[in-house]
């Protein structure tokens, strides 16, 4: 008789994560977990702690307390593994203006352990998938905002990470590219990639996410599957949380 296979750990687990910024709590006691193939939309008003949470997950900031596990391992102790398993698109898609599009992908690939024909294949497939092939030799410094955003996305997903961490991925994209991005995220999720995306666009969440988390004043106020009644229900939940905070402050 075959022994039952041990269940794999979640792709991402946050346990009671706390992080202060400028002496104030930006993220307080946040716990959540994400399985392979799930797409989680992270919502919250300005300053709620979304970007800080994503930077903690991506390993760019260290938590003051609590644990962050990637595929079951605390990645503070495994920074090289975290880099290979995570793709991160930070807010505003920071790029090197003096490098071309192709050079960006090569640099990101090498930093994540790709080289030789593996890197060539990954780079060419990503240029094609993100419709950047014709821009391969162009300097990042002269790209349009939407092209910059697409290059940032390409750098994040080039090495096929298990977890994709995206801060406002649809920023500056035209409506055609927004639809293409939705298709890309659904395709990645269907192939087992876990995705966490922060956005102010509730329509993006209802279009691509299967779960929603809402942060408010650094705490996680809501974490649930997207309901069948979609947009209207999400809008009500979001405003209830945002306005309750304002009523208390008034
Ligand atoms: N570099 C920083 N130094 C000091 N405080 C910061 C820094 N970045 C963010 N904060 C503070 O941390 C808190 C959370 O900010 P964060 O950027 O994570 O929120 P957010 O939900 O991403 O906001 P937005 O929707 O406006 O991008 C805010 O109070 C913010 O002022």
Automatic annotation (TrEMBL):
Positions of the ABC transporter domain: 12-242
Q: What Gene Ontology molecular-function terms does this entry list?
A: ATP binding
PANTHER family reported in the protein's UniProt record: ABC TRANSPORTER, ATP-BINDING PROTEIN
Q: Tell me the keywords, alphabetical order.
A: ATP-binding, Nucleotide-binding, Transport
The domain of life is: Bacteria
Family to which the UniProt record says this protein belongs: Belongs to the ABC transporter superfamily.
What the entry lists under PROSITE patterns is as follows: ABC_TRANSPORTER_1, ABC_TRANSPORTER_2
Q: Which SUPFAM superfamilies match?
A: P-loop containing nucleoside triphosphate hydrolases
Q: What is this protein called?
A: ABC transporter ATP-binding protein
Q: Which organism is it from?
A: Dyella lipolytica
């Amino acid at each position: 008789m075959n022994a039952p296979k041990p269940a794999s750990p979640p792709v991402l687990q946050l346990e009671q994560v706390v992080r202060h910024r400028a002496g104030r709590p930006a993220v307080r006691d946040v716990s959540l977990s994400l399985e392979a193939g799930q797409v989680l939309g992270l919502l919250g008003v300005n300053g709620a702690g979304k970007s800080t949470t994503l930077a903690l997950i991506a390993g760019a900031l260290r938590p003051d307390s609590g644990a962050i596990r990637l595929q079951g391992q605390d990645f503070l102790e495994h920074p090289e593994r975290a880099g290979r398993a995570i793709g991160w698109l930070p807010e505003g898609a920071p790029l090197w203006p003096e490098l071309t599009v192709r050079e960006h992908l090569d640099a990101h690939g090498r930093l994540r352990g790709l080289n030789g024909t593996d890197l060539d294949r990954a780079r060419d497939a990503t240029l094609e998938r993100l419709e950047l092939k014709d821009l391969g030799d162009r300097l990042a410094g002269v790209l349009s905002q939407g092209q910059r955003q697409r290059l940032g996305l390409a750098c994040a997903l080039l090495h096929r990470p298990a977890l994709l961490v995206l801060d406002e991925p649809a920023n500056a994209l035209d409506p055609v590219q927004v639809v293409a991005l939705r298709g890309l995220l659904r395709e990645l999720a269907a192939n087992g990639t876990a995705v966490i995306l922060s956005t102010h666009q509730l329509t993006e969440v209802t279009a691509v996410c299967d779960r929603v988390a809402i942060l408010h004043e650094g705490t996680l106020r809501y974490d649930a599957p997207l309901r069948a009644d979609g947009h209207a229900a999400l809008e009500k939940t979001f405003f209830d949380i945002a306005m309750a905070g304002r009523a208390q402050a008034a």
